[in-house]
Amino acid sequence: MFKNSGRGIEEKRNYWNKRYSAEGEIWGRLPSETCVVAAEAFKQMGVNTLMVPGCGYGRHSNYLSSIGFNVLGFDVSDIAISLAKEKKGPNVKYMNLDVLELSSLSERFDAIYSFNLIHLFKEEERQYILESFRQHLKGPSILAFTTFSTRDIDFGKGTKIEYNIFETKPGRPVHFYNESELRAVLRDWEIIELIHHSECEDHGNYPHTHSLWYCLCKVM
By the 8 A CB rule, do 119 and 130 touch? Predict the structure, then answer.
């Protein structure tokens, strides 16, 4: 059985606190295109309550709440949560919580939107996160998420940690998925949509584009 590492969570908290302290709203205020697409799917499927793990400073949570969803956003970084609360949208609440601590959360939700979070963990942790997501879903039981693809420009760069995991930045290992692996780990979910998405970013260094998987699936 997977066991949380308090030390590991604290290391992540320190890493993201440093980044948010130095860079603030790193990815701007507009939501990812995948969030807008997911929101339309949520509406069609009758979703009301949403969980947004790894919400950062709230750009997706605030957008989703502004168009009518009731949202809980949480993040391991207390600095990110402080930033999120400063621009808190309607029908949204924020918590300082790590995704590996979901067992402490009793609420269940119609859907989950997770942006570029799952790939930040090792294999055992990723399995635990997906199972935790399943346990916190009810009703429509929809999961929409993005994760890095092996087509990404950073694939293979940095120190190799595990299979297809590379520390592309000090203190931030990233797992890159190919399609067969992603379908395998989602074998207990009904995959509604699985596509490649190009996400453009410019957070103070240089404009660049990441190659992501966007997946929409539901509990079988």
Answer: no
